[in-house]
Amino acid sequence: MPAWVRELLGLAARVVVGMVFLVAAADKVGNPEAFARSIANYRLLPLELVNLPALILPWLELLIGLMLLVGVRIRAAAAVAAVLLVVFTAALVSALARGLDIHCGCFSQTAAERIGWGRVVEDVGLLVLAVLLVVWTPSRWSVEQYLRRSA
């Protein structure tokens, strides 16, 4: 595969994963109480531990999304995204296996988006893209490439 095709595919993967993380963070940042309720609905954490991830995860998602879109520390951002996607996918599968019919909490905290196997497939697809970015780390069209050229 020519290098330019590989770089273009890498850029596409960065944009897809980055945008998904940005969109996922948007509503959660402004609505941490509703996101905390969504986390509690999964019944994986004791109630006293729900607020901390509800406050931290949205900002982490925002940071990861920005880093991927701009092209700063791509491998690190993609690695953190991959870890989060494994956790999110495991939570979804666990809830589905236990027969829970709950609000996903993935994007909008007010929309009626329920958990389902389609969301699991989406998360696995995003996980594949994130792992590819870790292994392959394209740097073309990134701030890192610009900084290397300037040095």
User: In this structure, how is the largest beta sheet organized?
Assistant: none
Derived from helix and strand composition plus strand pairing, the structural class reads mainly alpha
Strand content: under 5%
Mean pLDDT: 91
Q: Based on Cα principal axes, name the global outline.
A: elongated
Low-confidence stretches: none
Instruction: Tell me the helix content.
Output: over 70%
SSE string, helices as H and strands as E: HHHHHH
Q: What's the tally of helices? A: 6
Give the N-to-C terminal Cα separation.
Answer: 29 Å
- Indicate the radius of gyration in whole angstroms: 17 Å
Q: How many domains is the backbone divided into?
A: 1
The count of β-strands is 0
How would you describe this structure to a colleague?
With 151 residues, this protein is mainly alpha-helical. The chain has one domain (3-150). It contains 6 helices and no strands. It has helices spanning 3-30, 32-41, 51-70, 74-97, 117-136, 143-150. Helix 3 (51-70) packs across helix 4 (74-97) and helix 4 (74-97) packs antiparallel against helix 5 (117-136). The longest helix is centred in the N-terminal third of the chain and has 28 residues, at 3-30. The radius of gyration is 17 Å and the shape is elongated. The protein starts with a helix and ends with a helix. The mean pLDDT is 91.
Please specify the SSE layout and strand pairing.
Blueprint (H helix, E strand, L loop, with lengths): L2 H28 L1 H10 L9 H20 L3 H24 L19 H20 L6 H8 L1
Question: Summed up, what is this model?
Answer:
This protein is mainly α and about 150 residues long. It is built from six helices and no strands. It has one domain.
